[in-house]
Specification:
The termini are far apart. By secondary structure, the protein is of the alpha/beta class.
Length: 371
């Protein structure tokens, strides 16, 4: 006897609610792309309170500036690598239907004689419109990205952004600003270092800023002909300090109390990871970490003791960055020799985050709350 068909068999199944989050409104998304001398990095994010939530990201070493120091031009192979990476960025922007974006290029494109040709090629092959920004804007964007890390006890602040082709330093006096408003006062610098201040409260004052045309790649290339590891490191540190002579606070002795350095770069985050003894990089443990000059010096001395071979094998450095970490460390040591501090804050953030904050602040989509 044939079995009876159960009642309701064949009916459409009851729909189950998906746990997947709703796709964000494309109008609420912002993209920021930073094309530097070494790397191509992008973030896609949406405003969330007084900060933002990252939706998608991209980062790749493209070495756009390889050979630039010698020939003054971007090589065909460097441009091809970079355009390949930019195609991935373009696909992510299209996938998320992002309409609000700033896509910027920095030192390599500022210096290369064929930068205009490269920018046109990027537009032709990817549809992306790259904008070459000037050093002051690059420095300003790095500063505002670090605003959440500024201590309420800080009165004098030095923000350092060590890039591949240049290093930006900005010295800011916030001693007249109410301690609770100091991070927010730094954020307000997105309008310009010397923009008119409309608020009735005292503003952060930019004492001086400088863009030194020496980053981890360009400083390394300057001393490639020096074979001895320790001698090359010492020469790089001395040479970088020589290029700070025009920086207004250069000759000022700085008290450690009330003074903070915020360092944003792969060099600073790598030193922090080494200090913590991390086997695998963890941004949550590195971003915002405070280190003293003595702790940083101990890490750098450890790098010198390792030598090139040891640095290549170190999981925090790796074979691609073993030479760059020493030029970056030379820059860092020169700064700490001049301005020793017990409060160097490590920032795993930089130009991309500054671009996002600036766009969102200009559009008024960030809440006015604690950072």
């Amino acid at each position: 006897m044939a079995p009876k068909r159960p009642k309701g068999a064949g009916a459409f199944p009851k729909p189950v609610e998906s746990n997947a989050p709703d796709r964000p409104d494309p109008n609420a998304l912002y993209a920021a792309l930073d094309l530097g001398t070494n790397s191509c990095r992008m973030l896609i994010a949406q405003p969330k309170g007084s900060q933002f939530h990252v939706i998608d990201s991209f980062s790749k070493s493209v070495q756009l500036g390889h050979g630039l120091e010698k020939y003054g031009r971007l090589s065909r192979s460097s441009m091809a690598r970079t355009i390949s990476a930019l195609r991935v960025c373009q696909q992510k922007i299209d996938r998320h239907k992002v309409r609000n974006m700033r896509l910027v290029a920095t030192e390599a494109c500022r210096r290369a004689r064929n930068a205009g040709e490269f920018i046109r090629q990027v537009k032709r092959e990817t549809g992306l419109r790259l904008e070459i920004i000037q050093p002051e804007e690059e420095a300003r964007l790095a500063v505002i990205s670090c605003a959440p890390l500024v201590s309420t006890k800080t009165e004098q602040l030095l923000v350092v952004d060590i890039g591949g082709g240049s290093t930006e330093l900005v010295w800011i006096d916030i001693s007249k600003v109410d301690p609770r408003d100091r991070p927010r006062a730094i954020m307000r610098l997105h309008a310009g270092f010397h923009a008119p201040h409309a608020s009735p409260f005292p503003a952060a004052r930019v004492v001086d800023w400088i863009s030194v045309p020496l980053g981890v790649a360009t400083l390394r290339d300057q001393f490639n002909d020096v074979d001895d590891d320790a001698a090359r490191y010492a020469l790089m540190s001395w040479f970088f300090e020589e290029n700070l002579a025009e920086f207004a606070p250069y000759k000022d002795e700085q008290q450690r109390e009330g003074f903070q350095i915020v360092g944003t770069s792969g060099t600073v985050t790598t030193v922090a990871a080494s200090h913590l003894g991390l086997r695998r990089y963890d941004r949550t443990k590195v971003d915002g970490l405070r280190m003293s000059s003595d702790q940083i010096e101990a890490v750098i001395q450890g790098y010198l003791t390792m030598g090139p071979g040891g640095r290549r094998r170190d999981p925090r450095i790796g074979p691609d960055r073993h030479a760059l970490i020493m030029s970056g460390s030379a820059i860092l040591q020169a700064l700490l020799r001049l301005w020793p501090t017990d409060r160097l804050s490590v920032a795993d953030r930089g130009l991309r985050e500054g671009l996002l904050y600036a766009q969102m602040s200009a559009d008024g989509v960030l809440e006015d709350g604690p950072l």
